[in-house]
């Protein structure tokens, strides 16, 4: 990697004078070459920064023709994507104002490149996002979303998503610019990548507070959003499930709204159809819904959620998904004996016990399995499900099981 | 004479006496001056002190009154806030009572209502079934649409390919690539080739639709189109042999855009149109619709507009103008008249009349 950076510095000193060449084609090609180099490796990107090329690029970003602007924005994006320090270096050269000005251009390619660069800058942390917002990028990005070109919409939606994910104030700023209405109009667009970004943006907005989640819900996205749970693209489905999860986690009223719209059934089907990491938001959503109140937990049980979660628990190889499933089952079963019985009937308790006992399971999984087991056992009065536990349980679990027996049986 | 001599003898003594007295006076002058000064300053001090005392008393009075006023205001404010707090506490208590009753009713009727919960869950299962079925149908419809579009685009591609490669069709002499003599039937491509119309060069140029995939055509209405550029005049080729003008000039003249003069460009009725326009503007911007009639005072048959006060159909109310008291005669039926006049006091009758006749004027 040292040779790579040495090589980088050598190349930079060759490319720098080409950027100042008279012929515009040479300038554009030099900028493109710089961008590709910086894109490939972060050492080269650092070399670009150290070679003092960025101020020159920013200066000419304001003046030159659109091909040059596209290439310059590409370089800025390639440099900013590697790490927060590089992104900060890009911001320090005054790139934000030039990028925001190029967002007002007519050519959609230039707008796309500028919006992409801004999105990559804002991705890293809250201060950089705040700097992007202070440069006045958000209204222009919302305008870009309304343009007819699909690629531009995609990039603008992903930039808004990156900006709003850091803090509630940033999300509020994005909402104040009227982004929600435009994002919700694009939900039924046929392009899959666009839908990914739109749902990601909506979920980042709604995750921060109840008011933001309510504003997203007021945009009347339900029940159209449930239709997107059947999209062939799995990341679209994952982002939809994430959005629903972020909405349900705030208050029981929002969860009630989604349950009434039939969201629980859709999510359960989605969990059944997908495999692996994409299932996680759906499982968490069921856990959040059940956690709010016992009526909602009963709604989850009635929609046949427990068998599906039991299948997840046995099928999935990854520990964090198993931990989430254990947590969700615990939330469902902890309210009343009815709930605990519904969970126990699905033959979940022995599985939870084995997960708790296995030494290979991670800490997190063991803790969650134990908590879930305990909370379900404290309400469980269904004796046939408790009997297998008697054989294998360690003493701290066994005392709860025996306690339950004493509460119920006279035999 | 004797007195003169006596006096002359006394002159020296008098001179000495005078001198002595002046000397003594001079010696005492400073002492007496200081004493006088002391007395005067003490007296002035008394006067000033008396004045200061007077001022102090007045200042004390003013401050006393002011502090009393301030204290009373403060007290009133305290009373106001205390009253307000008492009121709010009272309201809060009453509100708590109302909320207590309401919450008890609500919880008992809705939240802990077992049958309502059962109904809700049954309704929920039905909704879930409906949602599941609809989602399935939607997914099936979408997948069919996708297959259809994929199929159609495949067909179109193959047809385009066939048109481009139309020369590969098999002839009588030479069997084409897709028509192998060892097979029973020719390939489907062969049939396409047979039915394909060869591409013309102009068609191939206009085929380049670079906007596919970047422009949304599925959503609202018309796709985004670039503004139409006017066709430029054709580039002049070489000058043909003979007495012809330079082809560039000719083409310039032929494709010169029309530039009419102002006189030609204005319409015949432009004056009338301008008048209409002006009238419309006036009509739109005027405040008063009534036109001004010159010398219209000649036929002054304007009706006199009555005042609202006098012209109401309820007429004048007598109260306030004709009498100032409500008089209710029914209530006064059994009552005797109010005695308005006192019995006279005889002494007052004689007022002004006892001594002089000036009082008779009363």
Structure in words:
Chain A: Residues 1-20 form the signal peptide. Chain A: This is SPAG6 protein. With 411 residues, chain A is mainly alpha-helical. Chain A contains 28 helices and no strands. In chain A, 77% of the residues lie in helices and 0% in strands. The longest helix of chain A is centred in the N-terminal third of the chain and has 18 residues, at 2-19. Chain B is 58% helix and 0% strand. The model of chain B is unreliable at 215-223 (pLDDT under 50). The interface between A and B is medium-sized, with 27 and 26 residues.
The helix content of chain B, as a percent range, equals: 55-70%
Shape of chain A: elongated
Distance between the termini of chain B: 93 Å
pLDDT < 50 runs, ≥5 residues of chain A: none
Topology summary:
The complex is a heterodimer of chains A (411) and B (362).
Chain A: H1 2-19, H2 24-40, H3 42-50, H4 54-61, H5 66-80, H6 84-92, H7 95-102, H8 108-123, H9 126-134, H10 137-145, H11 150-164, H12 168-176, H13 179-185, H14 192-206, H15 210-218, H16 224-227, H17 234-248, H18 252-260, H19 263-273, H20 280-292, H21 294-302, H22 305-315, H23 319-333, H24 337-345, H25 349-357, H26 363-377, H27 383-392, H28 395-408
Helix pairs in contact in A: 1-2, 1-3, 2-3, 2-5, 4-5, 4-7, 5-8, 7-8, 8-9, 8-11, 10-11, 11-14, 14-17, 17-20, 19-20, 19-22, 20-21, 20-23, 22-23, 23-26, 25-26, 26-28, 27-28
Chain B: H1 2-111, H2 114-164, H3 188-195, H4 201-206, H5 247-254, H6 262-265, H7 270-285, H8 308-311, H9 346-349
């Amino acid at each position: 990697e040292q040779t790579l950076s040495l090589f980088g510095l050598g190349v930079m000193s060759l490319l720098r004078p080409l950027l100042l060449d008279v012929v515009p084609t040479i300038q554009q090609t030099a900028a493109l070459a710089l961008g590709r180099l910086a894109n490939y490796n972060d050492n080269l990107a650092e070399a670009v920064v150290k070679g003092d090329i960025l101020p020159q690029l920013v200066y000419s970003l304001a003046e030159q023709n659109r091909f040059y602007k596209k290439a310059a924005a590409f370089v800025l994006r390639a440099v900013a994507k590697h790490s927060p320090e590089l992104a900060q270096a890009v911001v320090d050269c005054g790139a934000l104002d030039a990028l925001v000005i190029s967002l007002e251009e007519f050519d959609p390619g230039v707008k796309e490149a500028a919006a992409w660069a801004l999105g990559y800058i804002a991705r890293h942390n809250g201060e950089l996002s705040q700097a992007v917002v202070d440069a006045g990028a958000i209204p222009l990005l919302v305008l870009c979303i309304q343009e007819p070109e699909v690629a531009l919409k995609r990039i603008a939606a992903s930039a808004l998503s990156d900006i709003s994910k850091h803090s509630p104030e940033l999300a509020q700023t994005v909402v104040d610019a009227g982004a929600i209405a435009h994002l919700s109009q694009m939900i039924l667009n046929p392009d899959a990548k666009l839908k990914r970004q739109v749902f990601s943006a909506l979920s980042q907005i709604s995750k921060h507070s109840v008011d933001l989640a309510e504003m997203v819900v007021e945009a009347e996205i339900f029940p159209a959003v449930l239709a997107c749970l059947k999209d062939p693209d799995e990341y679209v489905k994952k982002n939809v499930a994430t959005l629903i999860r972020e909405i349900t986690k705030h208050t029981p009223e929002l969860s009630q709204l989604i349950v009434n719209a039939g969201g629980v059934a859709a999510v359960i089907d989605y969990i059944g159809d997908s495999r692996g990491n994409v299932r996680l938001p759906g499982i968490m959503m069921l856990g959040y819904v059940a956690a709010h109140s016992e009526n909602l937990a009963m709604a989850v049980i009635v929609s046949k959620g427990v068998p599906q979660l039991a299948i997840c628990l046995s099928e999935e190889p990854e520990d964090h998904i198993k931990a989430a499933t254990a947590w969700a089952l615990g939330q469902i079963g902890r309210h009343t004996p009815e709930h605990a019985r519904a969970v126990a009937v699905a033959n979940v308790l022995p599985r939870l016990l084995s997960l708790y006992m296995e030494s290979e399971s991670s800490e997190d999984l063991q803790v969650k399995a134990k908590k879930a087991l305990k909370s379900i056992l404290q309400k469980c009065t269904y004796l046939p499900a408790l009997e297998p536990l008697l054989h294998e349980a360690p003493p701290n679990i066994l005392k709860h099981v025996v306690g339950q027996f004493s509460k119920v049986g006279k035999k | 004479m004797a007195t003169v001599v006596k006096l002359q003898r006394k002159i020296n003594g008098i001179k000495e006496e005078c001198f002595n007295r002046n000397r003594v006076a001079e010696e005492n002058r400073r002492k007496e001056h200081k004493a006088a000064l002391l007395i005067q300053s003490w007296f002035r001090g008394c006067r000033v002190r008396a004045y200061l005392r007077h001022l102090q008393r007045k200042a004390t009075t003013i401050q006393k009154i002011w502090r009393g006023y301030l204290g009373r205001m403060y007290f009133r404010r305290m009373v106001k806030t205390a009253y307000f707090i008492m009121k709010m506490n009272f309201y809060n208590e009453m509100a708590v009572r109302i909320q207590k009753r309401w919450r008890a009713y609500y919880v008992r009727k809705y939240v802990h209502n077992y049958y309502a919960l059962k109904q809700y869950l049954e309704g929920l299962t039905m909704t879930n079934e409906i949602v599941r079925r609809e989602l399935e149908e939607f997914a099936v419809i979408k997948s069919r649409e996708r297959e259809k579009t994929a199929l159609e685009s495949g067909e179109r591609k193959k047809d385009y390919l066939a048109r481009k490669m139309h020369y590969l069709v098999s002839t009588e002499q030479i069997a084409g690539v897709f028509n192998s003599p060892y097979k029973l039937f020719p390939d489907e491509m062969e049939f396409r080739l047979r039915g394909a119309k060869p591409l013309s060069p102009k068609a191939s140029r206009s085929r380049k639709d670079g906007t596919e995939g970047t422009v949304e055509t599925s959503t609202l209405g018309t796709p985004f189109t670039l503004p139409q550029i006017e066709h430029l005049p054709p580039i002049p080729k070489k000058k043909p042999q003979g007495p012809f003008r330079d082809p560039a000039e000719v083409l310039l003249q032929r494709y010169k855009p029309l530039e009419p003069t102002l006189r030609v460009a204005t319409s015949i009725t432009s004056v009338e149109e301008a008048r209409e326009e002006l009238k419309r503007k006036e009509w739109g911007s005027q405040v008063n619709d009534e036109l001004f009639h010159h010398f219209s005072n000649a036929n002054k048959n304007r009706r006199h507009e009555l005042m609202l006060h006098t012209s109401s159909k309820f007429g004048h109310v007598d109260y306030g103008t004709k009498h100032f008291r409500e008089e209710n005669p029914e209530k006064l039926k059994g009552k005797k008249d109010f005695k308005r006049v006192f019995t006279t006091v005889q002494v007052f009758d004689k007022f002004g009349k006892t001594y002089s006749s000036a009082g008779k004027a009363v």
